[in-house]
Design a protein that fits this description.
The protein is of the alpha/beta class. It folds into two domains: 270 residues, Aldehyde Dehydrogenase, Chain A, domain 1, CATH 3.40.605.10; 185 residues, Aldehyde Dehydrogenase, Chain A, domain 2. It is built from 17 helices and 23 strands. Strands 15-16-17-14-13-19-20 form a seven-stranded mixed β-sheet, with helices on both faces. It has a six-stranded mixed β-sheet with strand order 10-9-8-11-12-22, with helices on both faces. The chain is globular, with a radius of gyration of 25 Å.
């Protein structure tokens, strides 16, 4: 049985803990590896290594850091398909989808390659007689990333390239469900010339999470995951004086107006709802049909959903793979059951799906649930599976009210040919990321990613300029260089500028 080890000081490590967890192949239902689960001693070892490395890496020139980033970018690009296959084997998503994940991670690396420009400070000459003021940004120290199973390459890459480019050292705690891609990424960092200890991988469960949150030498923590855990990470970390950016769950809506092209909407809505088996924080899980758009939309989406080819991620013909674990499958099926009991209609039912040759895989087929109302559990809960709920609204304003009543505010979209309706929607919804005829509005790397309400805890969004600000702190210097040693004119009153 293959063992997935930690990465410490530029090499794999077994650490001290003997605890392990299974790593499943979701398409076969078989255990393909075991991952080590660290303990407090492992946390102490990794953080000490990162703290030692920080002393020199934080003083490394911006040019030298940028060279490492450029080399890392090329190596990731060369190994992108290998990374995608590892993700597919452990997560279950199809290889083409996993390749897209790696590509979006590459965009953040490319953004971080511009770190000399991103860290430029400000300068004000002669603010007072003979006095100048300038600012600079310095790294924090050891920072940690706690990342989810659904994007084992992309989400960590939203964090560590920016953190490392800013001069920090980074400890990654990936999901124990699909941990192997993180080790290949660590190898690529080393091949790119990153000094030992600057990037570490520590596998584990809650023990490691708490160990990183509590460790006095960890200056900041980045987290992406469910809302309850995001709230926990934020509260525990900030109570100990750490910087925390914690991105939580979502219930993303797509508003469909009667003037929208049904064919266009169907193609994009089905892809957004069922891509990656719905295991995306930006997946569309609720479609709100406005006016008389409902019946036409349900019919078209249902027909498209029935045609989706579900199978192992490694098979080129597969368009959607399994969900990540048997527990995830059973939870999703239970939510569909509840929706049906509460009065919803299920025109496309993915429960009990069988895939030829893979009877033990963790399969849930595309599911469309119509006549959903806001009080139903299928609407209220974050399903994180291939389930699209369809609700009805009389007009745009009612649809906006429905979106705003949700406790989540991650992403939303509107499909319409009306610029007036789109503008009213984008100004009216209380959501952090909005798409206009774009179902999954994930910003480019030079913008920042993050939602509102229960989808984000703390003020900092991830990557982009927010990421640079999060991983650095500002220092302002006021300087005077007298020409000769003479009386300075100092006084005991508060200094003023002259």
């Amino acid at each position: 049985m293959r063992t997935v080890e930690h990465w410490v000081d530029g090499r794999t490590s077994t650490g001290t803990s003997t605890r392990r967890a299974p790593v499943w192949n979701p398409a076969t239902g078989e255990v393909q590896a075991e991952v080590l689960l660290g303990d407090q001693a492992d946390v102490d070892t990794v953080v000490a290594s990162a703290a030692r490395a920080f002393l020199s890496w934080s003083q490394t020139s911006l040019s030298a850091r940028a060279k490492v980033l450029f080399a890392f970018r090329e190596l990731v690009n060369q190994r992108a398909h290998d990374l995608a296959e590892i993700v597919s084997d452990e997560h279950g998503k199809v290889v083409s989808d996993a390749f897209g994940e790696v590509s979006r991670g590459l965009e953040v690396i490319e953004f971080a390659c511009g770190i000399p420009h991103l860290l430029k400070g400000q300068y004000s000459d002669q603010v007072s007689t003979g006095v100048d003021v300038f600012s600079l940004r310095e790294p924090l120290g050891v920072v940690a990333g706690i990342t989810p199973f659904n994007f084992p390459v992309m989400v960590p890459m939203w964090m560590h390239p920016v953190a490392i480019a800013c001069g920090n050292t980074f400890v990654l705690k990936p999901s124990e469900r699909d941990p192997s891609a993180s080790l290949l990424v660590a190898e690529l960092w080393t091949q790119a010339g990153l000094p030992d200890g600057v990037f570490s991988v520590l596998h584990g469960d809650r023990d490691v999470v708490d160990g990183l949150l509590d460790h006095p030498d960890v200056a900041a923590v980045s987290f992406v995951g469910s809302t309850p855990v995001a709230r926990y990470v934020h509260d525990r970390g900030t109570a100990l004086g750490k910087r925390v950016q914690a991105l939580g769950g979502a219930k993303n809506h797509a508003i469909v107006l009667p003037d929208a092209d049904v064919s266009y909407v169907t193609d994009h809505l089905v892809a957004a709802a069922f891509g990656s088996a719905g295991e995306r924080c930006m997946a569309i899980s609720a479609a709100v049909a406005v006016g008389d758009a409902g019946d036409r939309l349900v019919e078209a989406v249902s027909e498209a959903a029935r045609g989706i080819r579900v199978g192992p991620g490694r098979e080129a013909s597969s368009e959607m793979g399994p969900v990540v674990t048997a527990e995830a499958r059973d939870r999703i099926v239970g939510i569909i059951d509840a929706g049906e009991r509460e009065g919803a209609r299920v025109p496309v039912d993915g429960r009990g799906l069988e895939v030829a040759g893979h009877p033990s895989g963790f399969w849930v087929g595309p599911t469309v649930i119509d006549a959903v109302t806001p009080d139903m559990s299928v609407y209220r809960e974050e399903i994180f599976g291939p389930v699209l709920s369809v609700l009805r609204a009389d007009d745009v304003d009612a649809a906006i009210d429905l979106v705003n009543a949700s406790p989540y505010g991650n992403g939303t979209a509107i499909f319409t040919a009306s610029g007036e309706a789109a503008r009213r929607f984008q100004r009216g919804v209380k959501v952090g990321m909005i798409g206009v005829n774009v179902p999954i509005p994930v910003p480019m790397a030079y913008y920042s990613f993050g939602g509102w309400k229960d989808s984000l805890f703390g003020q900092s969004r991830i990557h982009g300029e927010d990421g640079v600000a999060f991983y650095t702190r500002s220092k302002v210097v006021t300087s005077r260089w007298p020409r000769v040693q003479q009386a300075t004119g100092a006084s005991y009153h508060f200094p003023t500028n002259t």
